[in-house]
Specification:
By secondary structure, the chain is α+β, with helices and mostly antiparallel strands. The protein has 13 helices and 6 strands. The mean pLDDT is 97. It binds glutathione. Glutathione binds next to helix 1 and helix 2.
Amino acid sequence: MDLYTIHGGLGSPYSMKMRAIFRYRRLPHIWKQVDMAHRSIFANVKAPVIPIIQFPDGSWHNDSTPMIFVLEKLHCERSIVPEDAGQAFLAYLLEDMADEWGTKAMFHYRWYRERDQKQMSEWLSFDRLHGHGRTAILDSARMFRSRQVGRMALVGCTPQNAPIIEESAKRILGLLEAHVTEEAYLFGSRPSLADFGWMGQLSQLATDPTPDDLMREIAPFTFRWLMNLDDASGVEGTWRDPSAPPSPAIKGLLKMAGEIYFPFLLANAKAFEKGEPTFTVEMLGRSYTQGSFRYQQRCLWDLREAYAKLDAAAKTMIDPLLKDTGCLAPLTS
Ligand SMILES: N[C@@H](CCC(=O)N[C@@H](CS)C(=O)NCC(=O)O)C(=O)O
């Protein structure tokens, strides 16, 4: 049997995203929690991030978005890229926003408050060390916690940025909560890469104590939607009609991209080009500051390239929506 091996973790949003994709796509796989005994797998990939996936041909891969597109080339059944090129672009943009901006909420809620720091450092250490003794688990939790808390400023999870991150998380939850009772997924009755991208990040909000409480209170159906999407291997559906008006959720998420995600990407790219280690950008009426990263400069380039490759018919179809939501100018400038 052609078996994939996913080396991941329950506490890793990108691992949950990829496992859900493998399940939905019915690609035979096994799941391995990365633990101390398996650290050598990191030697097989460039960036030391999980999930790391070994393909049936023995090759090793990581970075979830490129992996999604490699899998699309290898398997055509149960694709997660909408058939219509314009919708496919929108799904890619929303997935990218989940990965790069949605993850701020994940990291912020996990490491900002004492309650979440304690619970999640202990659980994540337990995942890697269970059976090796309580002392080893708690010692490792303390080290892991101080390492993660120490990284918060670099990725923008500071007290100054907290109101922006929390407001944007609540906005996303509000949009999804209104959507999931009316339509199965963002681009139809079958899930797309955008659904899986958000599912990955929000699966962690549903686990960590403070955002778990928040979700149960303000987005209980979204919470349940995530649990269902975790194994959608039985879902059979169709893509939404690309000529139909966009749903309020798609429009709302794109508006967030125009107000938050693109300003963030543009400011990061500008700072990175100039060699500036940090950048500040105005969003939601406040100043947002964090370290500049090459990876997110690449995200902006990739989005622009994907948009530029669309044919005239696809652009005609989605341009009014992109323009209306403030996404067109950053994609074309
Ligand atoms: N862009 C990567 C990001 C993966 C990522 O950041 N993984 C995290 C866990 S969710 C990680 O392994 N971080 C390594 C670390 O914290 O040192 C993807 O889409 O897969």
